[in-house]
Amino acid sequence: MNTRASAPTGFVDCHTHILPCMDDGADSLPVALQMLESLHAQGVRTVWLTPHFYPYKENLNTFLARRVNAYRSLISAPGLMNMQFCAASEVYLSDYLFNYTDLSELCIGSRNSMLLELPFDSQPFERIYQKIDKLMSYFGISPVLAHIDRYPKIFQDKKHVEALVNLGCMIQVNLNSLSAGILIKRKILNYIENGCIHIVGTDCHNMGSRKPDFTAGISVIEKALGQHSVQQLILNARSIMR
Ligand SMILES: [Fe+2]
User: Please, what is the average pLDDT of the chain?
Assistant: First the structure.
């Protein structure tokens, strides 16, 4: 199988920490360029740049100013791969978000899609659900839940995942989780097949322990569910960007 040949318009990596010196991702411009080079070699042609935004730690304007500087340094770098970039953020779901009147700068596309990181503590599902619902009604955003595979209590309970999809959320999975064991792989494939996982990403942070590995996970999806499922994931990502 040649996944690069099967995606003529190129893959979309919907979750990366490539913007240099923004968070715990790329710690220099050369590392950021290496990460992009690696993704390009794997057939990725569109990259969402999604540095962490922790609203309880940093003011929104300060974050946005840092992001502009990092983005400018990246896109003006000599040797930058020919790719499409989308400046966004991985936004931590926090009550501090409600201190603002407008969060659109953190979002992607005309539907104001926001890549949301859920709390990793033991908050009851109902509380998380209510916060997402409130975020949608306050700001008119369309939530895209980041790496659902990293929240076992939600991920393992199909009712929870379906409730979030029915609320209007799109859901992203980290591709490396498809190599994390047979049970998690089966679960992810089942969710993709049933329309509960909509987009994929590497969530890459560096060129070491969390490097950009797009191909391995995509190959698992293509082998199990066919090329049409891979194409649908690409279409979903592009539809968010419109
Ligand atoms: Fe992330």
Answer: 95
Q: Where are the domains of the chain?
A: 11-241
- Per-residue pLDDT tens digits for 65-118: 999 999 999 999 998 999 999 999 999 999 999 999 999 999 999 999 999 999
- Sign of the CA dihedral 183, 187, 188, 192? positive
Cα of 177 from ligand 1 centre, angstroms: 13
List, for residues 215-238, the tens digit of each pLDDT value. 999 999 999 999 999 999 999 999
Distance 18 CA to ligand 1 centre (A): 10
Q: What is the Å distance from ligand 1's center to 133 Cα?
A: 22
Q: Could you tell me the distance, in angstroms and rounded to a whole number, from the CA of residue 16 to the centre of ligand 1?
A: 6
Average pLDDT score over residue span 206-213:
97
What's the 45 CA to ligand 1 centre distance in angstroms? 19
- Whole-number Å distance, alpha carbon 139 to ligand 1 midpoint, is 22
Residues 239 and 111: their CA atoms lie apart, in Å, by 10
- Cα(116) to ligand 1 centroid in Å equals 9
CATH 3.20.20.140 fits 11-241, yes or no: yes
- Measured in Å, residue 181 CA sits from the centre of ligand 1 at 21
CB 190 within 8 A of CB 163: no
